[in-house]
Predict the structure.
Amino acid sequence: MASTEEFIEFVCSQIDNEGVIRYRKMFGDYMVYINDKPLLLVCDNVVYVKMLKPLEPVLEEADTGYPYRGARLHYILDIEDRLLVRTVIDLLEPITAVPVKRRRKGRGHQ
């Protein structure tokens, strides 16, 4: 079951003070970008974040799960806990890079 548009809008409303927010549909679910950085993965109406070292002290008691088949284990973020969400974003944003767009091969451009 894919995430609903209503849930994505709710997620965005919970982080509306964290910077420039946008989301993109990917693989039937969504990636949420904050200041052009991919920080939150939303699958089946559940918010996931990568299991990164700086998040361990904050999310050590959080549930974990796999957002999709073949994915690595992620933390499940309680999106309703605004203080926790702000803390997680404050930790993730400085260490997450803005993705670089790659040119596709074979498009006739030289």
About this structure: The CA atoms of residues 29 and 89 lie 20 Å apart. The chain has three helices and six strands.
